[in-house]
Design a protein that fits this description.
Glutaconate Coenzyme A-transferase, eight-stranded mixed sheet, about 30% helix, about 20% strand, homodimer, five-stranded mixed sheet, binds coenzyme A, alpha/beta, 18 helices
């Protein structure tokens, strides 16, 4: 028997990526695996994109709606965006070409909390799901599926879709088997029950995914790696941000608000989050836990050196070096990592119960602590909100981090008024730039404005922020959250006009 | 024995409101009962305000930090604001004088999700709580307390405070006894456990509140009614809003997304929410359930006529007629209503599990569905976010409602860019004005903008919104969420300058 496809019936459903892609018709809603560049289908989307290009060349419309777990890679989002094959895309993405098309106004993109996607699909908010395309490590004798390097929404897509295409990717480490915990206790309200998970390491599901075999219309074999993006080496700025976080955490331990085991860490995506995690190993912590979405290289390093004893996530997003390290020591990591559905990794019930410390990057914060995670100059989407809102709203602590300036100083990360709000003043507790940290807990808006300006702003922008706030204090319509409506977004407007927020 | 104070030791702690108030010292953090004008202490705060006025007249500073459940009334927020006695106030308020002082920049106010207050206090984010002042219906033989017309954060304040002052209010109906469910299963992370509540009517606690008797420093007898504010009679506009909601709900039932029992309703505060609830009785529903914060007159009417079979809340906010009706049929209502701590009534875990239908008022929404619930012209706070964010983020459906215009048409409720964001585009599903409803589920920002403008805007403003959006589509920096930074807040600026948002 085939060593990755151990079910005779499914073995017979093998076909080429082209043949499988041909089963997808214009107008369909197609749900795919994939979360932060891991575990996404790799050959069917490429074959589909070619068929779309051909259709378009022949003057025929060919677009589909695409749902995933989170971001994928050029072989999925890139090629389908290039082919003009996306009518709607949700929930999170980070592919450069897809991003460009969205920001050119050519693709409709809907940005949803990662904890909401599966339930909204079940609620019927996105209509029928015609086909699911799911990458797996292998198919077992009983037809159950060994999940790949991400779990994401795969359980939901397999359950809900009318038909299923499976990509068996032999480059995914067979060592992943046994690492997953797929929870099958969800229900629709009013039939929901408590989720009995009390610690990041608790297992509440099964290591395999079930699929109704009669729905499987194709099995495709692939042999290709995940995106494996490299991270920027931590630089001076991200090391300073990490140091401020360490300082703050020390203070929390001294006041007794946390023990030196902290509380389960969540760490967002991107260079800053990755560098800050790596910085944590300087803190002298041992035996911490993580309850997070993504395991990046930084987290893997912390597990290796014992800083983190156990990590729960829904996906691996590793560099090539990271994947090599993981594959080499997969038995070590299998004891210390569990991958879950994103419904569980990002679940408000669990994040609140566990009391996560949420560490996320941001694009900008305003002087009152409203945070923009998604839209540069209020309109150009970067990646989407991802799970940052799930953790920031429900965690023990919500931390947002960014360099104080972007684009060689031409953009300030601290602005009078956030040009897009993803996390409101009600949800943000600690902001960090390389300049310092601002602890907003227990502060009113005006107290926040003074602290944020003093501790976080870059020297080029600090006097400008002070000047804005003082004039707002004097002239604002109301003086609870003083603002000058005629000027609040003027920094962004100036950037558009002159390419620089500075006066 | 005294019929409301049945514990001998506490009976001996009786003293005048003046004597009790004299136990409160400048700089203290004082946590008080009270939620939406119900169950707040009535005589100690007034006596305290007098002592503050005297101190201030004598040139001495006298300010305290005040934490409550939610809004109170003139006898608490009003007098203490007038006396200049508040250094910081949180989390929700609606007293006109307090609001004025906050907006004059004289009082620091911090606006927090109602589900967060108790846990943030336990986490130590607000420092020590020196004194709790809690209104109760009575004290039992064993010293346990019969909660009053609201539960709010009382359990937390009683547990956390160094010292406790109890106001026993004999105007509160003795019939309230047995109506409460005070949950004692909370813990700090990492020791938290699932909350085993699966239906609005489940009881998971006890009907009485415990208090460490050695902490009780005063018992004060009062005899005064709750605020008892009258509601505006539903007018044509709010009836139209209610009709649109009924229309929408019919559609949900037809498509099978809900049964005709709907899902547990949450209904916000204010005239619109109250009128819309009253309108629900026209829908022909029977045996619905509510899982909400406040029972206003509208909800009471629905319970009376059988539309709602059971309601879970944390407070009553009734008019004089409402309270009379309640007192007359208290045995009927006791079987159909349970009052819980706000930690439980607003808990993300439970709101998501139950799948609440969240119905809240708003100040304004922008064309992308960002909702402002709190700050008029981005700076003048109305009441605060209350629990609207808890329900909107975690419920099955999040609905926000408002007339399409305010102030005789001089203000549009639909604007290009929300001047303050309390609920982001990621959290809003259905918006309603008297013009119609906009169902935003499954739509991208640009699709939302078109629908919101078409369905919700007042005719005076619709062409202005269309014009803004078309120009933004053409000239925006990015075209995911098209905006003109130089113009996005210009409607609010025009209102400040001319008193009218219209051109
Ligand atoms: C906000 C976010 C984009 C920051 O990413 P990052 O990699 O940590 O931070 P960087 O400073 O390297 O910024 C990434 C890019 O955004 C740009 N950027 C950052 N702030 C900016 C600003 N205020 N204006 C314009 N560009 C900005 C940077 O210049 C950089 O651009 P480049 O790729 O051209 O070099 C990222 O954290 C994110 O996508 N967050 C939202 C999702 C999320 O939090 N998920 C968590 C769990 S899934
Ligand atoms: C938003 C909110 C103030 C609306 O209140 P409401 O009583 O339903 O609605 P109304 O239309 O009667 O508006 C109340 C007042 O706000 C004013 N208002 C409403 N929208 C406005 C706007 N866009 N600009 C200026 N004023 C506005 C109204 O004119 C009215 O003023 P008045 O008291 O001088 O007559 C109210 O729902 C609220 O406080 N919400 C936040 C808290 C919440 O949602 N809690 C829910 C659970 S606790």
């Amino acid at each position: 028997m085939h060593d990755r496809i151990r079910h005779a019936g499914l073995l017979e459903k093998r076909m080429s990526a082209e043949a499988a892609a041909a089963l997808i018709k214009p107008g369909m809603t197609v749900a795919m695996s994939g979360f932060t560049g891991a575990g996404y289908p790799k050959s069917v989307p490429q074959a589909l994109a070619e068929q779309m290009e051909k259709a378009h060349a022949a003057g025929t419309d060919f677009q589909i709606k695409i749902l995933t777990g989170a971001s994928t890679a050029p072989e999925l989002d890139g090629v389908l965006a290039k082919a003009g094959g996306m009518e709607l895309r949700l929930p999170y993405m980070s592919d450069p070409l897809l991003r460009k098309r969205i920001n050119d106004g050519e693709i409709e993109y809907m940005d949803i909390h990662l904890s909401h996607v599966a339930q909204h699909a079940w609620f019927g908010f996105y209509g029928d799901i015609n086909i699911a395309i799911i990458e797996v490590v292998g198919i077992r004798e009983d037809g159950s599926l060994i999940p790949s390097s991400s779990v994401g929404n795969n359980k939901t897509w397999l359950d809900m879709a009318d038909a299923v295409i499976i990509e068996v990717n032999k480059q995914q480490s067979a060592g992943l088997e046994g690492m997953h915990d797929v929870y099958y206790g969800t229900a629709l309200p009013p039939f929901r029950k408590p989720i009995m998970l009390n610690h990041p390491e608790d297992r509440i599901g099964q290591p395999y995914m079930d699929v109704d075999l009669s729905k499987v219309i194709a099995v495709v074999e692939t042999d290709a790696p995940d995106r494996l993006s490299a991270f920027a080496e931590p630089d001076a700025v991200s090391n300073q941000i990490a140091d401020h976080l360490l300082d703050f955490l020390d203070g929390e331990i001294k006041t007794g608000r946390m023990t030196d085991k902290l509380l389960p860490l969540q760490s967002g995506v991107g260079n800053i989050a990755n560098a800050v995690l790596a910085g944590l190993s300087r803190g002298g912590y041992r035996g911490l836990k993580a309850y997070t979405e993504v395991i990046q290289d930084g987290m893997l390093g912390l597990i290796k050196d014992g800083t983190i004893a156990f990590a729960s996530a829904t996906s691996f997003s590793l560099s090539e070096a990271g994947i090599a390290e993981f594959n080499k020591h997969v038995d070590f990591y299998r004891e210390r990592i569990v991958l879950r559905t994103q419904e569980i990794s990002n679940h408000p019930e669990l994040i609140r119960r566990l009391g996560c410390v949420a560490l996320n990057g941001m694009i900008e914060a305003d002087i009152y602590g409203n945070v923009n995670s998604t839209n540069v100059v209020g309109s150009h989407v970067m990646n989407g909100i991802g799970g940052s809102g799930d953790f920031a709203r429900n965690g023990f602590l919500s931390v947002f981090m960014s360099p104080s300036v972007a684009k060689e100083g031409r953009i300030s990360g601290i602005v009078p008024f956030a040009s897009h709000v993803d996390h409101t003043e009600h949800d943000t507790m600690l902001l960090i730039t390389e300049q310092g940290y601002a602890d907003l807990r227990g502060l009113s808006p005006k107290q926040r404005a003074r602290l944020i300006t003093e501790k976080l702003a870059h020297p080029d922008y600090k006097p400008m922020l002070e000047d804005y706030f003082e004039r707002a204090l004097r002239d604002s319509y109301g003086k609870h959250t003083p603002h000058l409506m005629g000027e609040a977004l003027s920094w962004h407007q100036r950037y558009i006009e002159t390419g620089d927020m500075r006066l």
